[in-house]
Amino acid sequence: MLPVGQGARITAVDWNCLVDEEAHRLRALGIDEGAKVSVSHRGVFGGRDPIAISVGRMIVAVRRAHAAAMEVEVL
């Protein structure tokens, strides 16, 4: 739901709704509570997947299901 370009901080992640391997991979990429993120781009097809999220100096593509597991506060 975060607009493209808007900065936010991840306040919580519902790790239980993600497959263990996916949760481990997201954590390894720095997507965890306290991380500052922003949406860089959304897909253009039907489900609008994937979503490109900026985390630090990286841009990471995640599925909408992964993004839905995250709660953020706008900065």
UniProtKB/TrEMBL annotation:
Keywords attached to this entry: Iron
Family matches, as Pfam families: FeoA (PF04023)
Keyword Iron in record: yes
GO MF term set: transition metal ion binding
Domain Ferrous iron transporter FeoA-like: 1-74
InterPro entries documented for this protein: Fe-transptr_FeoA-like (IPR007167), FeoA_core_dom (IPR038157), Transcriptional_repressor_C (IPR008988)
Keyword Iron: yes
Name used for this protein in its record: Ferrous iron transporter FeoA-like domain-containing protein
Species whose genome carries this gene: Novosphingobium pentaromativorans US6-1
